[in-house]
Amino acid sequence: MAIKPCLVLLLPLAALLLLAGSSLAAAQLEVGYYSKSCPNAEAIVRDEMEKIISAAPSLAGPLLRLHFHDCFVRGCDASVLLNSTGSIMAERDAKPNNSLRGFGSVDRVKTKLEAACPNTVSCADVLAIMARDAVVLAKGPSWPVPLGRRDGTVSSATEAADNLPPAFGDIPLLTKIFASNGLDLKDLVVLSGAHTLGTAHCPSYAGRLYNFSGAYSSDPTLDSEYADRLRTRCKSADDTAMLSEMDPGSYKTFDTSYYRHVAKRRGLFQSDAALLTDATTMEYVQRIATGKFDNVFFKDFSESMVKMGNVGVLTGAEGEIRKKCYIVN
User: Fold this and answer.
1) Which residues fall within 8 angstroms of residue 267, CB to CB, at 6 or more apart?
2) What is the widest separation between alpha-carbon atoms in the chain?
3) Of 17, 132, 260, 280, which one's alpha carbon is 20 to 30 angstroms from that of 197?
4) CA-CA distance, 234 to 148, in Å (whole number)?
């Protein structure tokens, strides 16, 4: 499948230099990074994750989402986990992150790692491993996670609001955001497949159901029967309590049914619907939606997750290894 090659050429020089630095840092990550300093690190994470997901299978999506939301702001440095302090509002309190869950699970895993290997495993690496394990435990693919990230010391709600891909994003906007992180159009359509896991609050999609535009009361790109069904759950744009499954009927299982919903114009977000407005992303959606290429999607998702996990990482003497993920040392 032809992927548009010119995206990175449109980036400003400063962004290109940032990406070059990110690639250099990513090259310092390695599979088995803790083989000597904390050889059981990944086993400890997996053991806790098995307990967490067994008790609450619906947490697989939120724990995967934490890694996504971390990497798109300042790179994969666990800045999304830091608490706000004084007058400084942190990423986790930004409006796009109001529905994030799983912070307690991260703290639980980090506590186990600190007991076994004090001051060794970064919170950024914990997020990357937990995201992989969340997918595996939801019956999705596994992949080797390159490790060696360090934790950032800065977290900004403003940066989160400015840099996270929005649920209302169209292809030009989403492409720009992904390209600024060294991710291309294929990564966009593949990583959108993470919406096979989890739920969303009404305000994130209500704009498609009510007062969509002057010409339409609801989004015409949304299947009308599906829209009617959503309105029975989401009574108004102000309903913050009601949740809808992002992949109806399969939101706890990592599979390709998300693409079948999107192909039928039943993607929950405008960003999902946008995948049908570009020839390249539409082709991928329709191919995976056939159900004949699950292994292709699993392989693509694994590769794109490794690529995303390399965005803007701190390594070597940069940053720190936080003792507690919600506060700097």
Assistant:
1) 195, 258, 261, 273, 275
2) 63
3) 280
4) 43
* C-alpha span between 8 and 127 (Å, rounded): 27
69 given a catalytic annotation = yes
pLDDT number for residue 217:
82
Q: Specify the pLDDT at position 215.
A: 73
d(CA 237, CA 209): 8
Instruction: Residue 192: name the closest of 167, 209, 220 by CA.
Output: 167
Assign 324 to helix, strand or coil.
Answer: strand
Which residues belong to the annotated binding site for substrate?
A: 165
Catalytic residue among 67, 69, 201, 261: 69
Which among 23, 150, 179 has a CA at the least distance from the CA of 76?
150
pTM of the full structure: 0.90
Q: Are 306 and 143 in contact (CB under 8 A)?
A: yes
How far apart, in whole angstroms, are the C-alpha atoms of residue 69 and residue 76? 9
94-150 pLDDT, tens digit each: 999 999 999 999 999 999 999 999 999 999 999 999 999 999 999 999 999 999 999
pLDDT value at residue 27: 53
pLDDT of residue 218: 87
CA dist., res. 287 & res. 57, Å (int): 28
pLDDT at 186: 98
Say how far apart CA 4 and CA 9 lie, in whole Å. Answer: 11
CA 8, 12, 13 angle in degrees (round to 5)? 100
- 217-233 core/surface letters (b: 16 or more CB in 10 A; e: else): ebbebbbeebbeebeee
pLDDT of residue 15: 45
Task: For residue 83, give Cα distances in angstroms to 71, 88, 195, 272.
Answer: 17, 9, 26, 31
Q: Residues comprising the binding site for Ca(2+)?
A: 70, 73, 75, 77, 79, 91, 196, 247, 255
- Give binding residues as ranges: 70, 73, 75, 77, 79, 91, 165, 195-196, 247, 255
